[in-house]
Amino acid sequence: QQEKENLQGKLKLREHLSQTAGKSEATPAPSKNSDLEMKQLQCKLKNSNNEISKQSTTIKSLKNEVQEKEERVRELQAKISRLERDLSMKRHLIEDLRSRLKANQENEKTSNETLESLERKVKAQAEDCLNKKTCIDSLKQRLNVATKEKSHYEQMYHKAKDELEKKELKLNNLESKMIETEYAMTELEATASQQLQGLAKQTGQALETVQRKLLLTNDKVEEFMTFVK
């Protein structure tokens, strides 16, 4: 732009000189060198204009690129702000997770201690249950033995009861027989008394026979009494 302004200034000066020379008759016509220089300056001015046009296009392009870069920078700054917020949130989250992890570790330590205590209790309970199971098995064996003995004694009881019933029946029969025998003895004694009164005069042999019968009867009665006892 400065070069353009310089060239424009030189052209304006040349034009002014040319106009001044045309008005003044005493001034000679411009020389070929001046015309050539004028053409060179016009050429330079044209080239400068073209270069300025190119530079303007380049500047516009660069401005657009700069705007895009600025937009990209704003986007990146916004993204950085979001990332910083996310990073801050993540730091807070990490701190929270660390505190939770510490609390969980403490809780885990407490839980492990409680678990160890419970395991010891479970082990003690298991040993107690094993001892009780052994005791229960022993009691079951004793119960089986007692059940067998009870069954055996029940059989013996029923057998003894049956035998007792039989003996009671036999005793009743013997008692009835004894009553019959006593009744027969009474009758026999009455008969013997009557016979003694009627046969007082019979011989000693008949008396001995009766006495032998009486002794036999007494022996039978004693046998019955002994049997009954």
Automatic annotation (TrEMBL):
Residues 1-59 are annotated as: Disordered. Transmembrane segments: none annotated. GO terms for biological process: centriole-centriole cohesion. Coiled coil: none annotated. Gene3D superfamilies: 1.10.287.1490. Residues 1-17 have a biased composition (Basic and acidic residues). It comes from the Eukaryota. GO terms for cellular component: centriole; centrosome. Residues 45-59 have a biased composition (Polar residues). InterPro entries: CNTLN. PANTHER family: CENTLEIN. This is CNTLN protein. It comes from Alca torda. The gene is Cntln_0.
